[in-house]
Design the sequence.
Protein backbone atom coordinates (compact mmCIF):
# COMPACT_ATOMS: atom_id res chain seq x y z
CA UNK A 1 0.00 0.00 0.00
CA UNK A 2 2.82 2.39 0.87
CA UNK A 3 4.49 1.76 -2.46
CA UNK A 4 1.26 2.36 -4.37
CA UNK A 5 0.66 5.59 -2.47
CA UNK A 6 4.16 6.82 -3.28
CA UNK A 7 3.75 6.00 -6.97
CA UNK A 8 0.37 7.74 -7.00
CA UNK A 9 1.95 10.95 -5.69
CA UNK A 10 4.76 10.69 -8.22
CA UNK A 11 2.19 10.63 -11.02
CA UNK A 12 0.14 13.45 -9.46
CA UNK A 13 3.19 15.67 -9.04
CA UNK A 14 4.60 15.20 -12.49
CA UNK A 15 1.43 14.97 -14.54
CA UNK A 16 -1.12 17.18 -12.79
CA UNK A 17 0.30 19.48 -10.09
CA UNK A 18 3.11 20.69 -12.32
CA UNK A 19 0.60 21.78 -14.94
CA UNK A 20 -1.88 23.17 -12.42
CA UNK A 21 0.76 25.42 -10.84
CA UNK A 22 0.97 27.35 -14.12
CA UNK A 23 -2.79 27.68 -14.66
CA UNK A 24 -4.14 31.15 -15.35
CA UNK A 25 -7.16 30.53 -13.09
CA UNK A 26 -6.12 31.50 -9.56
CA UNK A 27 -8.46 28.98 -7.90
CA UNK A 28 -6.54 26.17 -9.60
CA UNK A 29 -3.25 27.52 -8.30
CA UNK A 30 -4.75 27.67 -4.80
CA UNK A 31 -5.73 24.01 -5.11
CA UNK A 32 -2.19 23.26 -6.25
CA UNK A 33 -0.85 24.63 -2.97
CA UNK A 34 -3.52 22.78 -1.00
CA UNK A 35 -2.60 19.51 -2.69
CA UNK A 36 1.08 20.00 -1.93
CA UNK A 37 0.37 20.83 1.70
CA UNK A 38 -1.69 17.64 2.03
CA UNK A 39 1.26 15.36 1.28
CA UNK A 40 1.85 13.30 4.40
CA UNK A 41 5.28 13.41 5.99
CA UNK A 42 5.80 9.66 5.59
CA UNK A 43 4.86 9.85 1.91
CA UNK A 44 7.14 12.80 1.18
CA UNK A 45 10.09 11.09 2.86
CA UNK A 46 9.60 8.04 0.61
CA UNK A 47 9.48 10.05 -2.60
CA UNK A 48 12.60 9.88 -4.78
CA UNK A 49 14.79 12.97 -4.47
CA UNK A 50 13.81 14.14 -7.95
CA UNK A 51 10.15 14.35 -6.97
CA UNK A 52 10.92 16.06 -3.69
CA UNK A 53 12.88 18.68 -5.62
CA UNK A 54 10.01 19.02 -8.07
CA UNK A 55 7.54 19.69 -5.27
CA UNK A 56 9.82 22.38 -3.82
CA UNK A 57 10.44 23.96 -7.22
CA UNK A 58 6.70 24.18 -7.89
CA UNK A 59 5.90 25.68 -4.50
CA UNK A 60 8.64 28.22 -3.81
CA UNK A 61 7.61 30.76 -6.52
CA UNK A 62 3.93 30.78 -5.51
CA UNK A 63 4.24 33.07 -2.44
CA UNK A 64 4.96 35.82 -5.00
CA UNK A 65 1.71 35.17 -6.89
CA UNK A 66 -0.41 38.19 -7.82
CA UNK A 67 -3.50 36.69 -6.14
CA UNK A 68 -3.64 36.93 -2.35
CA UNK A 69 -5.45 33.59 -1.98
CA UNK A 70 -2.60 31.85 -3.80
CA UNK A 71 0.02 33.61 -1.69
CA UNK A 72 -1.77 32.57 1.50
CA UNK A 73 -2.12 28.95 0.38
CA UNK A 74 1.54 28.83 -0.67
CA UNK A 75 2.67 30.09 2.74
CA UNK A 76 0.57 27.43 4.42
CA UNK A 77 2.14 24.73 2.24
CA UNK A 78 5.65 25.98 2.99
CA UNK A 79 4.82 25.89 6.69
CA UNK A 80 3.88 22.23 6.32
CA UNK A 81 6.94 21.39 4.20
CA UNK A 82 9.50 22.80 6.63
CA UNK A 83 8.44 20.27 9.27
CA UNK A 84 9.40 17.35 7.01
CA UNK A 85 12.68 15.88 8.36
CA UNK A 86 14.46 15.89 4.99
CA UNK A 87 13.55 19.53 4.31
CA UNK A 88 14.22 21.00 7.74
CA UNK A 89 17.72 19.53 7.46
CA UNK A 90 18.21 21.09 4.02
CA UNK A 91 19.97 24.42 4.54
CA UNK A 92 19.15 25.59 1.01
CA UNK A 93 15.42 24.98 1.42
CA UNK A 94 15.35 26.62 4.85
CA UNK A 95 17.13 29.68 3.48
CA UNK A 96 14.87 29.91 0.41
CA UNK A 97 11.76 29.45 2.50
CA UNK A 98 12.83 32.10 5.01
CA UNK A 99 13.31 34.59 2.17
CA UNK A 100 9.93 33.78 0.63
CA UNK A 101 8.09 34.05 3.96
CA UNK A 102 9.77 37.29 5.02
CA UNK A 103 8.34 39.13 2.04
CA UNK A 104 4.85 37.88 2.86
CA UNK A 105 5.07 38.95 6.50
CA UNK A 106 4.69 42.50 5.18
CA UNK A 107 1.82 41.68 2.82
CA UNK A 108 -1.08 44.11 2.75
CA UNK A 109 -3.62 41.26 3.07
CA UNK A 110 -4.20 40.01 6.63
CA UNK A 111 -4.87 36.42 5.54
CA UNK A 112 -1.50 36.24 3.81
CA UNK A 113 0.28 37.64 6.86
CA UNK A 114 -1.58 35.14 9.03
CA UNK A 115 -0.45 32.16 6.95
CA UNK A 116 3.06 33.59 6.70
CA UNK A 117 3.30 34.03 10.47
CA UNK A 118 2.23 30.41 10.97
CA UNK A 119 4.86 29.26 8.47
CA UNK A 120 7.51 31.42 10.12
CA UNK A 121 6.65 29.91 13.50
CA UNK A 122 7.05 26.43 12.02
CA UNK A 123 10.37 27.46 10.47
CA UNK A 124 11.74 28.57 13.83
CA UNK A 125 10.39 25.42 15.51
CA UNK A 126 12.18 23.35 12.86
CA UNK A 127 15.43 25.18 13.62
CA UNK A 128 15.03 24.27 17.29
CA UNK A 129 14.73 20.60 16.30
CA UNK A 130 17.86 20.63 14.12
CA UNK A 131 19.77 22.59 16.77
CA UNK A 132 20.02 19.38 18.81
CA UNK A 133 22.82 18.27 16.49
CA UNK A 134 26.26 18.69 18.06
CA UNK A 135 27.70 20.55 15.07
CA UNK A 136 24.74 22.92 14.69
CA UNK A 137 25.70 26.44 13.65
CA UNK A 138 22.84 28.89 13.18
CA UNK A 139 24.75 30.86 10.54
CA UNK A 140 24.70 27.84 8.25
CA UNK A 141 20.91 27.98 8.25
CA UNK A 142 20.10 31.67 8.40
CA UNK A 143 22.51 34.54 7.92
CA UNK A 144 22.67 37.34 10.47
CA UNK A 145 20.71 39.72 8.18
CA UNK A 146 18.04 37.05 7.74
CA UNK A 147 18.00 36.42 11.50
CA UNK A 148 17.47 40.12 12.08
CA UNK A 149 14.71 40.21 9.48
CA UNK A 150 12.91 37.24 11.04
CA UNK A 151 13.10 38.77 14.50
CA UNK A 152 11.97 42.15 13.19
CA UNK A 153 8.97 40.79 11.27
CA UNK A 154 7.98 38.54 14.18
CA UNK A 155 8.11 41.56 16.48
CA UNK A 156 5.93 43.58 14.12
CA UNK A 157 3.47 40.69 13.85
CA UNK A 158 3.32 40.43 17.65
CA UNK A 159 1.84 43.94 17.65
CA UNK A 160 -0.37 43.33 14.60
CA UNK A 161 -3.80 41.71 14.28
CA UNK A 162 -4.60 39.43 17.23
CA UNK A 163 -4.79 36.42 14.89
CA UNK A 164 -1.11 36.83 14.03
CA UNK A 165 0.22 37.34 17.52
CA UNK A 166 0.25 33.77 18.82
CA UNK A 167 2.38 32.59 15.89
CA UNK A 168 4.58 35.68 16.07
CA UNK A 169 5.58 35.12 19.69
CA UNK A 170 6.05 31.41 18.96
CA UNK A 171 8.55 32.28 16.23
CA UNK A 172 10.24 34.81 18.47
CA UNK A 173 10.63 32.33 21.32
CA UNK A 174 12.01 29.52 19.16
CA UNK A 175 14.44 31.77 17.29
CA UNK A 176 15.87 33.39 20.42
CA UNK A 177 16.15 30.02 22.12
CA UNK A 178 18.87 28.93 19.67
CA UNK A 179 20.57 32.28 19.04
CA UNK A 180 24.23 32.35 20.13
CA UNK A 181 25.67 35.17 22.21
CA UNK A 182 27.65 36.76 19.38
CA UNK A 183 24.40 37.68 17.60
CA UNK A 184 23.64 40.05 20.47
CA UNK A 185 26.95 41.88 20.38
CA UNK A 186 26.17 44.92 18.25
CA UNK A 187 23.88 47.88 18.74
CA UNK A 188 21.36 46.86 16.08
CA UNK A 189 20.92 43.43 17.64
CA UNK A 190 20.21 44.97 21.04
CA UNK A 191 17.71 47.40 19.52
CA UNK A 192 15.88 44.49 17.90
CA UNK A 193 15.84 42.64 21.22
CA UNK A 194 14.46 45.67 23.01
CA UNK A 195 11.56 45.89 20.57
CA UNK A 196 11.02 42.12 20.66
CA UNK A 197 10.76 42.15 24.44
CA UNK A 198 8.19 44.96 24.27
CA UNK A 199 6.08 42.81 21.96
CA UNK A 200 6.53 39.73 24.15
CA UNK A 201 5.51 41.55 27.33
CA UNK A 202 2.46 43.07 25.67
CA UNK A 203 1.25 39.62 24.64
CA UNK A 204 1.89 38.12 28.07
CA UNK A 205 -0.26 40.84 29.59
CA UNK A 206 -3.01 41.22 26.98
CA UNK A 207 -4.72 39.46 24.11
CA UNK A 208 -6.55 36.20 23.61
CA UNK A 209 -5.83 33.33 25.97
CA UNK A 210 -4.07 31.45 23.17
CA UNK A 211 -1.83 34.43 22.53
CA UNK A 212 -1.00 34.85 26.22
CA UNK A 213 -0.33 31.12 26.58
CA UNK A 214 2.02 31.20 23.59
CA UNK A 215 3.73 34.34 24.87
CA UNK A 216 4.47 32.70 28.22
CA UNK A 217 5.70 29.60 26.42
CA UNK A 218 7.90 31.81 24.22
CA UNK A 219 9.38 33.41 27.33
CA UNK A 220 10.18 29.94 28.64
CA UNK A 221 11.87 29.08 25.35
CA UNK A 222 13.94 32.26 25.41
CA UNK A 223 15.08 31.69 28.98
CA UNK A 224 16.36 28.23 28.06
CA UNK A 225 19.14 30.04 26.21
CA UNK A 226 21.89 30.75 28.74
CA UNK A 227 23.46 33.18 26.27
CA UNK A 228 20.34 35.35 26.06
CA UNK A 229 20.87 38.87 27.46
CA UNK A 230 18.71 38.68 30.57
CA UNK A 231 19.22 39.59 34.19
CA UNK A 232 22.63 41.02 35.02
CA UNK A 233 24.74 42.28 32.14
CA UNK A 234 27.24 39.88 30.65
CA UNK A 235 30.75 40.98 31.44
CA UNK A 236 31.99 43.49 28.91
CA UNK A 237 28.62 44.01 27.21
CA UNK A 238 26.63 47.22 27.22
CA UNK A 239 23.00 47.89 26.55
CA UNK A 240 21.46 49.89 23.75
CA UNK A 241 21.64 52.98 25.97
CA UNK A 242 25.42 52.57 26.27
CA UNK A 243 25.95 53.40 22.58
CA UNK A 244 26.00 56.82 20.98
CA UNK A 245 24.11 57.75 17.81
CA UNK A 246 26.98 56.42 15.69
CA UNK A 247 26.86 53.02 17.35
CA UNK A 248 30.06 53.59 19.32
CA UNK A 249 30.36 52.59 22.97
CA UNK A 250 30.53 55.42 25.49
CA UNK A 251 33.74 55.54 27.45
CA UNK A 252 32.02 55.46 30.84
CA UNK A 253 32.52 52.48 33.10
CA UNK A 254 29.41 50.35 33.51
CA UNK A 255 28.14 50.03 37.03
CA UNK A 256 28.45 46.71 38.78
CA UNK A 257 25.42 44.42 38.65
CA UNK A 258 23.59 46.46 36.01
CA UNK A 259 20.57 44.75 34.46
CA UNK A 260 19.38 44.52 30.89
CA UNK A 261 16.57 47.03 30.56
CA UNK A 262 13.86 44.48 29.71
CA UNK A 263 14.58 42.15 32.63
CA UNK A 264 12.19 43.81 35.07
CA UNK A 265 9.31 44.17 32.61
CA UNK A 266 9.49 40.54 31.44
CA UNK A 267 9.58 39.12 34.95
CA UNK A 268 6.87 41.50 36.19
CA UNK A 269 4.59 40.42 33.34
CA UNK A 270 5.19 36.74 34.11
CA UNK A 271 4.65 37.29 37.83
CA UNK A 272 1.37 39.08 37.13
CA UNK A 273 0.28 36.24 34.83
CA UNK A 274 1.07 33.51 37.34
CA UNK A 275 -0.62 35.28 40.24
CA UNK A 276 -3.53 37.16 38.67
CA UNK A 277 -4.61 35.51 35.42
CA UNK A 278 -7.90 33.63 35.73
CA UNK A 279 -6.91 31.08 33.11
CA UNK A 280 -4.80 28.32 34.61
CA UNK A 281 -3.19 27.28 31.32
CA UNK A 282 -1.67 30.76 31.11
CA UNK A 283 -0.59 30.56 34.75
CA UNK A 284 1.01 27.15 34.20
CA UNK A 285 3.13 28.43 31.33
CA UNK A 286 4.03 31.62 33.18
CA UNK A 287 5.18 29.47 36.10
CA UNK A 288 7.19 27.30 33.73
CA UNK A 289 8.88 30.39 32.28
CA UNK A 290 9.78 31.72 35.73
CA UNK A 291 11.33 28.36 36.61
CA UNK A 292 13.34 27.99 33.40
CA UNK A 293 16.64 29.87 34.02
CA UNK A 294 19.45 27.73 35.40
CA UNK A 295 21.80 30.57 36.32
CA UNK A 296 21.12 32.99 39.13
CA UNK A 297 22.41 35.94 37.09
CA UNK A 298 19.54 35.50 34.61
CA UNK A 299 17.11 36.52 37.35
CA UNK A 300 18.88 39.78 38.08
CA UNK A 301 17.51 41.35 41.24
CA UNK A 302 14.13 39.64 40.96
CA UNK A 303 14.80 36.19 42.41
CA UNK A 304 13.25 36.90 45.81
CA UNK A 305 10.19 38.55 44.26
CA UNK A 306 9.65 35.59 41.95
CA UNK A 307 10.02 33.20 44.87
CA UNK A 308 7.32 35.06 46.79
CA UNK A 309 5.03 35.05 43.74
CA UNK A 310 5.37 31.30 43.26
CA UNK A 311 4.79 30.70 46.95
CA UNK A 312 1.70 32.92 46.84
CA UNK A 313 0.43 30.95 43.86
CA UNK A 314 0.84 27.69 45.74
CA UNK A 315 -1.15 29.05 48.68
CA UNK A 316 -3.86 30.25 46.31
CA UNK A 317 -4.16 26.77 44.79
CA UNK A 318 -4.82 25.38 48.27
CA UNK A 319 -7.21 28.08 49.42
CA UNK A 320 -10.65 26.45 49.83
CA UNK A 321 -12.32 29.85 49.57
CA UNK A 322 -11.08 30.37 46.01
CA UNK A 323 -13.00 28.37 43.44
CA UNK A 324 -12.26 28.03 39.76
CA UNK A 325 -14.62 27.50 36.85
CA UNK A 326 -15.51 23.89 36.22
CA UNK A 327 -13.39 23.79 33.06
CA UNK A 328 -10.39 25.13 34.99
CA UNK A 329 -10.30 22.49 37.75
CA UNK A 330 -8.02 20.16 35.81
CA UNK A 331 -5.53 22.93 35.09
CA UNK A 332 -5.73 24.26 38.64
CA UNK A 333 -4.71 20.82 39.88
CA UNK A 334 -1.90 20.71 37.31
CA UNK A 335 -0.58 24.05 38.54
CA UNK A 336 -0.86 22.80 42.10
CA UNK A 337 1.37 19.82 41.29
CA UNK A 338 3.74 21.96 39.24
CA UNK A 339 4.57 24.32 42.10
CA UNK A 340 6.03 22.75 45.24
CA UNK A 341 7.13 25.17 47.96
CA UNK A 342 10.33 24.88 49.92
CA UNK A 343 11.52 26.66 53.07
CA UNK A 344 13.05 30.13 52.56
CA UNK A 345 16.59 30.33 51.30
CA UNK A 346 19.04 28.70 53.66
CA UNK A 347 22.71 29.36 54.14
CA UNK A 348 23.47 25.89 52.82
CA UNK A 349 22.25 27.10 49.41
CA UNK A 350 24.46 30.15 48.73
CA UNK A 351 22.86 32.46 46.17
CA UNK A 352 26.23 33.89 45.20
CA UNK A 353 27.18 30.73 43.30
CA UNK A 354 27.62 31.38 39.58
CA UNK A 355 25.56 28.44 38.45
CA UNK A 356 22.67 27.51 40.70
CA UNK A 357 19.70 25.43 39.59
CA UNK A 358 16.21 26.11 40.87
CA UNK A 359 16.30 22.85 42.75
CA UNK A 360 19.53 23.62 44.58
CA UNK A 361 18.27 26.99 45.79
CA UNK A 362 15.03 25.38 47.00
CA UNK A 363 13.06 27.74 44.85
CA UNK A 364 10.71 25.93 42.47
CA UNK A 365 10.49 22.27 41.58
CA UNK A 366 8.75 21.32 38.36
CA UNK A 367 7.58 17.76 38.01
Sequence:
Amino acid sequence: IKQKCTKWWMVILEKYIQQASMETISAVRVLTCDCLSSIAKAVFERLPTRYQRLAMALLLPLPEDEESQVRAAACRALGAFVLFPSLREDTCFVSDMATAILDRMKDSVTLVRLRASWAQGNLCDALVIVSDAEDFNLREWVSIPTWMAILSTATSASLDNDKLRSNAVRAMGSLLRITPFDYFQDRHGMLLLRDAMVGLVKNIENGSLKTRWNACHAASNILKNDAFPMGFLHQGQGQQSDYDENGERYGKQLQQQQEYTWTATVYCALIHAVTKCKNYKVRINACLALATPHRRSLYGRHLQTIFQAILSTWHTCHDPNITADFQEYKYQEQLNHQVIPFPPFHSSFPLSAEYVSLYSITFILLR
The radius of gyration is 23 Å. Residues 223-367 form one domain.
